[in-house]
Amino acid sequence: MSDRKLSEQELVRREKVKELRNLGYDPFGQKYERDSFAKDLKEKYKDVDHDFFESMSDTARVVGRIMFIRKMGKASFFSLKDKSGSIQVYISINDVGEDIYSLFKSADIGDIVGVYGKIMKTKTGEVTIKCLEYTPLVKGLRPLPEKFHGLTDVEERYRRRYVDLIMNDESRRIAFLRPKIIRSIQNFLDNKGFVEVETPVLTTLLTGAAARPFVTHHNAQDLDMYLRIALELPLKRLLVGGMESVYEIGRTFRNEGMDPKHNPEFTLMEVYQAYSDLDGMMDLTESMFLNIATNVIGKLDYNWYGKEINLKGPWKRISMVDSIKEVTGIDFKKEMTVDEALDLAKEHDIEVAEHEHTIGHIINLFFEKYVEETLIQPTFLYGHPVEISPLTKKNKDDPRFVDRFELFIGGKEFANAYTELNDPIDQLERFEEQLKERALGNDEANDIDMDFIEALEYGMPPAGGVGYGIDRLVMLFTESESIRDVILFPTMKPIDR
């Protein structure tokens, strides 16, 4: 039971609840049949001359939250906000009668009401509803934040997203745009013959990515389980089963820190296509991003983290070792020993952990230090060392590297793709190497999934696969700089109320 002391405004609003009940109104809602939305009305009548409305009899029935009131004796204006936006309402004692006008005058900002009235336009050109029927629906018991400042505490914006959505039009824009982006992705893939599927969130093995898991417990089976860190291995089992082109968009969980680019609970999409390869995944990815940019957002140029980004293709494609050579002059294509690579790392002040004492890991450390943040325009970076890509097919021309790419935009990773490894013997050896890394201290190394090895032994077709962080993708297309701006309910530390 809360012992919070109510403010004077809150006490007054609670008294108004009693008054509404005494007048026969339910202060917490009833059905209301609307026939119009604010945005549609403003768009429909924006070009109609003010004088022409005198001869019109168009009406509308709208419902929403009161966001502004200007009371003026026997007539007043207020703004009503629904999911599409706001519209002005004019209410007069001459149109609704003394009792209803008195009822309106007891309303507060934040109350939810229904309005039926005639469409008009003020002399200043604002589309307005002349109220003929006014229906109180829900009494707001807490006052909204002051209009011009809203929720100034960013943490409170994320914690009380419901208030943020009421007050902040940008938050509402993002909230409605995100599902449109996801729907466009689904339509894009469906039209190319892919099938959307669902795979388990709970698993007994740590596989598919390098990440720390969340651990839970299945009481009935007395079994510790993980919340999934990736979608990969179940989807590849479906390729074995003959589904050929599949994808999943789903919640994924990694027990890691929180920052503007990471949330422990996030949305991942993985796509797998039989008989494709790395180049096919590059073409698919570029087409999908351009489809979103063109058909959902309507532009190719974005300002993100202060950088100007243009999505017009074709996008740059470069190998990891060539990108390092461009910046540092070091050519990791040359044969070298681990000791020589360690000496290069030492010369460049790169710290190498014990489990990273391989040439492949050192190449990756050079990339992260010198190259990653310089890839501003869309760039497919391919040719990763085999040591950091345990699930990927080796390059047939140089088995030190694998057929993998990462997409970088604005210096940040947006996609991770492979020509998928389908050799069960090679895959088992890679899993075993992961266990050795775990013994050396890498707590993100994968388990051995023997059921997956068995599936591969039945024969998985050659395939391309790619994974996308949906939240980061939405960040780019909405030009948001924090992942918590594009997740409606990001993970937050609890606070005492």
Features of this protein?
OB fold (Dihydrolipoamide Acetyltransferase, E2P); 497 residues; 15 helices; 24% strand; 2 domains; alpha+beta; eight-stranded mixed β-sheet
Question: Could you explain how this protein is built, in words?
Answer:
It is elongated and about 90 Å long. It contains 15 helices and 18 strands. It has an 8-stranded mixed beta sheet with strand order 6-10-11-18-17-16-15-14, sandwiched between helices. A 5-stranded mixed barrel has the order 1-2-3-5-4. Strands 7-9-8 form a 3-stranded antiparallel beta sheet, with no helix packed on it. The chain has 497 residues and is an alpha+beta fold. Strand 1 and strand 2 (75-82) form a beta hairpin. It has 2 domains: 8-144, Nucleic acid-binding proteins (OB fold (Dihydrolipoamide Acetyltransferase, E2P)); 167-315 and 377-485, BirA Bifunctional Protein, domain 2. The mean pLDDT is 93. It starts with 7 loop residues before the first helix and ends in a 19-residue tail after the last helix.
The portion of residues assigned to helices is 25-40%
Beta-strand proportion: 15-25%
Q: What general form does the structure show?
A: elongated
Query: Mean pLDDT, as a whole number?
Result: 93
**Number of domains in the coordinates?**
2
Query: From the helix content, strand content and strand pairing, which structural class follows?
Result: alpha+beta
Distance between the termini: 11 Å
Gyration radius from CA atoms, angstroms:
29 Å
The CATH homologous superfamily of the largest domain is named Bira Bifunctional Protein, Domain 2
The CATH architecture designation of the largest domain is: 2-Layer Sandwich
Q: Can you tell me the CATH class of the largest domain?
A: Alpha Beta
Largest beta-sheet characterization: 8 strands, mixed
Q: What's the arrangement of strands in the largest beta sheet? A: 6-10-11-18-17-16-15-14
* Helix count from the secondary structure assignment: 15
Fold-level CATH name of the largest domain: BirA Bifunctional Protein, domain 2
Poorly predicted runs: none
